[in-house]
Amino acid sequence: MTNPSESGILIVDKPQGVTSHDVVAAIRGGLRMKRVGHAGTLDPMATGVLVVGFGNATRLLNYIVGADKTYEATIRLGQFTTTDDADGDVMAWSDKVAHGGFSPVIHPDANMSGDIATLSQETIEQAIAGDFTGRIEQTPTMFSAIKINGKRAYDLAREGKDVELKARPITIREFTIIDGPVPATAHNGEPALDLTVRVTCSSGTYIRALARDLGYRLGVGGHLTMLRRTRVSAFDAATADVVTAHAESRTFTNRDGETITRNRCVIDYPNSDETTDADADASHDTSNPRRDYLLGHALPMAASARLTMPCADITADEARELRFGRWIPRRGDGTAAAIVPASSAGDSRGDELVAIIEPANRRLAKPVVVFPAEQPD
Q1: Which of 13, 22, 43, 351 is catalytic?
Q2: Fold classified for 4-67+237-297
Q3: pTM of the prediction?
């Protein structure tokens, strides 16, 4: 069983050019621990906050993944692409309209290609305020991780198969132009306009789809050229203990004898020459500079829960009841983290996350997730 003291949440600043799974693999190798996961995928082209949980804290990830998020992005107006971002090929207006999967919110008069020279910041802001703030319907991009009959949408799209995704409700709490529109030149030489924006939105929002739909609404086309996630719930990229990383290219030969080159995620450890990857994998010593570095940058489970959801302070006796699956007297309207405060723990362990609780009736709360007790040193 995982020691609760070796469980926590890491805020990783994901580099461009690697997948979220690559980041998890790097953390898993550094901690020498299999039980590692993340809360909310970032595209390979995106950078920024990836919340990574390890040990028993992986059970908190389901509650973090649904939190609001904040992004900074650059939207290029003047072109559609096949993937709705800079990694795709430029797509003709007529083809994109036929196959682009636009959201039902889009203005019905925005179906003719316009001229970017006529676009002003005021025009763009009016479109954003009218159609892209508050609760709206959004059709996700075809190149998304959504599963259709057990297969990822992006895998089906790469195979050339038709991908039909249903529109879903999302909430845009902020959609602000930080800079622009600035004249730009697209990679095929055509004129374009770049917008730098900040978006705060509900879980499940695709910023690429916002860029696509805004371009359609304005009649000129649009796609994403830069995306950075700056916040997930209260987990912020500016946090002092954020773990940074970079992408490194590696070449290897697969089982079929093919030479493959791909990026991997490498954590920016201090004094990284102290321990090689081979040493980290082979060593069974519980003391390891890379592991110690990650554990030192991790948020404890109780602190992470307090940043994620409503919390209920409970007594040690109530903690024992919850760990036996019993209900405790507690009024509440929704899900909460049950925590024994450090002042009640009777030792120096600090706050202890005991369970995630939900109302059983008007007077009682029941445990839906229970965490093992931490043993005192």
Answers
A1: 43
A2: Alpha-Beta Plaits (3.30.70)
A3: 0.86
